[in-house]
Amino acid sequence: DSPLKAVQMLWVNLIMDTFASLALATEPPTESLLLRKPYGRNKPLISRTMMKNILGHAVYQLTIIFTLLFA
User: Fold this and answer.
1) How much is the CA Rg of the chain, to the nearest whole Å?
2) Residue in 71, 50, 17 with CA at minimum distance from that of residue 9
3) Cα(57)–Cα(15) distance, integer angstroms
4) What does the domain layout of the chain look like in residue ranges?
5) Do the Cβ atoms of 51 and 58 come closer than 8 Å?
6) Positive or negative, the Cα torsion across 38, 42, 45, 46?
7) In the prediction, which pLDDT does 35 show?
8) Which phi and psi (to 5°) does residue 41 adopt?
């Protein structure tokens, strides 16, 4: 039996997402961000640097999880 009902979980999710979006929305843009040219339509959504970062984090987390599980 779940300690939180579905409606309570939705309410907590709504509140947490609201605070997170407010934190991001109130951050002022930097001057360099305002002056740079927009990306083209054919550019990939995830850049090569972002993909390396994502894969690096995934490998790191899997290493830690497997170490904790099997060590």
Assistant:
1) 20
2) 17
3) 28
4) 6-70
5) no
6) negative
7) 95
8) -70, -30
Measured distance CA(55)–CA(62) in Å, rounded:
10
Q: Is the pTM of this model over 0.70?
A: no
Q: How far is Cα 66 from Cα 71, in angstroms, rounded to an integer?
A: 8
| Residue 44 CB contacts under 8 Å (≥ 6 apart), including other chains | none
> Are 21 and 13 within 8 A, CB to CB?
no
Question: Tell me: the pLDDT tens digits for 1-59?
Answer: 778 798 999 999 999 999 889 988 888 889 999 999 999 999 999 999 999 999 999 99
Residue pointed to by tokens 């605070």: 19
CA distance 34 to 29: 7
Q: Choose among 20, 18, 25: nearest CA to 10.
A: 18
